Amino acid sequence: MSRPGFVLEVDERTPALLMHEGEGFRLEKLPLGSRVIYPPESLPGLRDLDARIRHALANPLGREPLHELLRPGMRLTIVFDDLSIPLPPMRTPDIRQRIIEQVLELAAAKGVDDVELIAGNALHRRMTPAELKRTVGERVFRSFFPRHLRNHDAEDKANLTEIGQTRHGEVVEINRRAAESDLIVYVNVSLTAMSGGPKSVSVGLASYRSLKHHHNVHTLRHSKSFNDPPNSAMHHSYNRMAGLLDESVNIFQIETTVNNDTFPDYVGFLNKREWEWNLKDQASYLAVKRANDLAPPKQRRQIWHRTAAPYGVTSVTAGDPIQVHEVTTRHVLRQQLTEVDGPADIGIFGLPYICPYNVNSIMNPILVMSLGLGYFFNLYRGQPIVRPGGVAIYYHPVRNEFHPVHHPSYIDFFEEVLAETTDPVAIETKFEEQFATDPWYIHLYRNSYAYHGVHPLYMWYWGAHAMEHLGDVIFVGGNRKTTERMGFRSASTLDDALEMARERVGRSPSINYLHAPPLTMADVR
Amino acid sequence: MNLTLEYHRSPVRYMTTRTATGTSVGGRASGWMAANLSPLRLLNRPEPRLPGAGWTRVRPRLSGICGSDLGLLTGRNSPYLSALISLPFTPGHEVVGDTLDDLPDLPKGTRVVLDPVLGCVPRGLEPCAGCAADQPSRCDHITAGRVSAGMQTGYCADTGGGWSRVFVAHASQLHRVPDTVDDERAVLVEPLACAIHTVRRAPIPDGASVLVVGAGTVGLLTTMALREYTKAGPIYVIARYGHQRELAREAGATEVLASDRAARALRRATGGFLARPERGSEYLLGGVDLAFDCTAGSGLDTALRVVRAGGTVVMSGMPNAGVDLTPLWFRELNLVGAYCSGGHDFPDALALAQSAPLTGYVDAVYPLSRWRDAIGHASAAGRLGSVKVAFDPTKDQ
Predict the structure, then answer these.
(1) CA–CA gap between residue A348 and residue A367 (Å, rounded)
(2) What is the distance in angstroms between the Cα of B249 and the nearest Cα belonging to chain A?
(3) Where residue A491 falls among pLDDT bands split at 50, 70, 90?
(4) Potential cystine with B295: which of A316, A374, A466, B299 (Cβ 3.0-4.6 Å)?
(5) Which residues belong to any copy of the LarA-like N-terminal domain (chain A) (predicted)?
């Protein structure tokens, strides 16, 4: 039986606590009385996973068993989540590979010949052949790549189709092949409560025309939080779109959840609560930290990005997208939700080396912002862990570095747009159209491995709710110029950051520290 | 006697400064190198003789230090020019001063600015094709006639130059300065005339996008000239220092860019694709219609890389850096030179100097006796927040 989530109140016996800071980590002593929000202990993974997959496909929720939906001559499209989840990437064989192999076996047994596999990467960068192979496995890759295994292309006008408009006037436009298939099998991995369900097809296979209806400042400011779908305007939009899709497209959803075994054994201490570190964990911490600090930056980054998570899969559910997603969300929350008694004046977050958009890449300043003020800030239900007007303190070096191939429009966004304004509404009004329709960005998105031109703006919107909510944002260890460019402040140490925060929250602030990763979602009463 | 800064022949000093300033460390200390190693010396010489009728002595009030002068003192100027000068000479070709002799229509004591080109008229020769076309900067006779070789005053042994108490000039070189133009503005008339000439060297269609590389004196004045005498559309200026950015905007720049992100910013502004070669700088497939290199050649590479196919690059200022000409060939660019001025450029410059935002441009004035400080200051003008450094020979006792 795994122990539930836990809030620790720091007292004089509390050891220094682990804090992620990009491609590094440190132990930090927090002020007495600070509350530390830990996730529930990692849940046990399912045993005999292949059998559980087989069972899910044969006993779906709200749908006939998959083998009964398959017939000769049909068009079958298998769509799978791209490399943005889970984080870090899971050890091979990836759960998507296991599921896709079973779906293909059933399809073959039923004589289905017209099968296509599409990565649901929306406006994310294309996955490289190596990344596709890692996700779907060697056997599937060899059989289908490149003609029948590909990335979704949100700018391939000829291969997009408009399904219709919701009652709110939201255009639903998705991949033509998927839309015209007799059956879409969507293979999902849900790492947070925001993923999966209505989001899968309506976002993963959509175009900018369609995405802009929910990826905008207004929607994100009214998504409190976007990890709490009932209170997320973004998910309300997904739901409307999914409702429209449901009328014209037949979707068989397969969703999975993973536990909190985020880091492999050699850095196993990162998965544990600090006071439970044994001698080996303490020695590992010292050795790994020393080696990590001494490693050249390039090698350090390579090592972190080669790290694969030994996740256990905690659920596999198939069938009707809505019914499946209810089950999935319960499993995610069971693994991540921790009750917290009210927000604090200050919220502290340690930001790790990876976010959904820098897998095998560089975490540039915009991505640091979206990870901190977007993903981590929104890891709440009820209310944020910081009170309105409070201060968020993040740990990250926020280096001014960008991946020139993956993030070309991010460079221009940082240099040009943020030099002019950091106001999300002003940015959206003046720059979104320019970035979204820039032919060079579109060319790179389609032919290179670049995120879509509009993506950095979306990342900025991702933090719009936090920017509106917070009184100040401070990065401990952050590059001063880079943080300033984004409208934030930097501090050398936590003490300095707390001193700076006092201007806004007084001399005796309450503090909440969201101890993640492994991911923790605060259920703030 | 005439107190004068004289540049004399010294192959050893020339090669020493050229070699030393050619390194990255030496380049940063080029001001010190120019001031201490170059073959320049402060001397008392007899006043230069009047070469003939139509000539007058001129007593400089202010004499600017130009980028080409610094190129000379650091040994960076091309040896190509060595055939067009006569040694020893007194540098200084951006001059406002008073005439000391009576000439028809130019009585003694008239405040004048100098058009330094020594074409056929001052040389007492029949006009060559360039001079006949009122383009004396294209004169073919700059090594002939009644004064010795020298493309300009400031490179000619017989005329002297502005970095002295007295030099000689022909009436055709002198332009009366209106009372409304003070000395600080008047000393900028010569570079302003060059800037006007530069923007007239290539046709600029209405609304054309233009890049000015460099925001020193030449870049800033070129920006002003573009705004005044053309109907260019957006003007982008690459500037390195904070004060240059502000002045460029004041001069009429639409947007001021940092050199390290110019290609990306111009791509965003003008469209096109950005290409990243395995070695060397990024370049555009697309880009601005025209670019003006106002950096004495160091920015020419940038200019060639960000002009659209079929576009034009105009070189202003004396070039002293090598460049990869592949874009010129591949993008079928037009490369245009712009040297000094001609036609109506000088009168137009005098008119523009009255209204242009030139206040504060001349912010460091030295006596000749402090020439090492002046050269050091001029070499680091950008870093030190200055635009134009000048000598005031009247300050020397």
Answers:
(1) 18
(2) 15
(3) very high
(4) B299
(5) 37-224
A341 plus A372 within the same structural domain = yes
* Mean pLDDT of the residues in chain B: 93
Task: Give the nearest partner residue to B264 out of A415, A434, A439, using CB atoms.
Answer: A415
For testing contact with chain B, the best of A407, A409, A414, A416 (most B CBs within 10 A): A416
Expressed in angstroms, the distance from the first to the final Cα of chain B is 12
Of A416, A434, A440, nearest to B273 by CB-CB distance is A440
Residue of A nearest to B286 (CA): A440
From the CA of B297, how many Å to the nearest CA of chain A? 26
Subunit contact A415:B265, Cβ cutoff 8 A = yes
What is the per-residue pLDDT for A51? 97
Model pTM? Answer: 0.88
Q: What CA–CA distance (Å, rounded) separates B225 from B200?
A: 9
pLDDT single digits (tens) A277-331: 999 999 999 999 999 999 999 999 999 999 999 999 999 999 999 999 999 999 9
User: Do B274 and A408 lie within an 8 Å CB cutoff?
Assistant: yes
Residue of B259, B264, B268 to mutate when probing chain A, most A C-beta within 10 A: B268
- Domain spanning B2-188+358-395 has what CATH number? 3.90.180.10
**Residue A383 placed within a domain:** yes
Chain B nearest C-alpha distance from A507 (Å): 39
Q: Which residues of B touch A481 (CB under 8 A)?
A: none
* Residue B264 to residues A196, B8, B210, Cα–Cα distance (Å): 37, 45, 15
Residue B32: predicted pLDDT: 77
pLDDT tier at A1, thresholds 50, 70, 90: low
Q: Is the pLDDT confidence value at A478 over 70?
A: yes
pLDDT in tens, B8-61: 988 888 888 888 877 777 667 777 777 788 889 999 999 999 999 999 999 999
Q: Do A404 and B276 touch (CB under 8 A)?
A: yes
Distance CA A471, CA A502 (A): 11
**Per CATH, is B192-338 categorized as 3.40.50.720?**
yes
**Tally of domains in chain A:** 2
In a 10 Å sphere around its CB, with 0-12 CB exposed, 13-18 middle and 19+ buried, how is residue A109 labelled?
exposed
In which domain, by residue range, is A430 found?
6-42+266-309+337-524
In this structure, are residues B364 and B382 in contact, taking their beta carbons and an 8 Å threshold? Answer: no
B360-378 residue pLDDT tens: 999 999 999 999 999 999 9
Task: Determine whether the interchain pair A416/B267 forms a contact, defined as Cβ–Cβ distance below 8 Å.
Answer: no
Assigned domain for A221 exists: yes
CA distance to B70, B176, B178, per residue, from B164 (Å): 17, 20, 24
The secondary element (H helix, E strand) that includes residue A427 is helix A424-437
The percentage of residues in chain B with a pLDDT greater than 90, rounded to a whole number, is 82
What ipTM score was computed for the predicted complex, to two decimals?
0.80
Residues from chain B contacting residue A412 (CB–CB below 8 Å): 264-265, 268
Residues of A with CB below 8 A from B267's CB? 440
CATH label of the domain that carries residue A10: 3.90.226.30
Measure CB to CB from residue B268 to each of A404, A416, A443 and give the nearest one: A416
**How far is the C-alpha of B314 from the C-alpha of B283, rounded, in Å?**
18
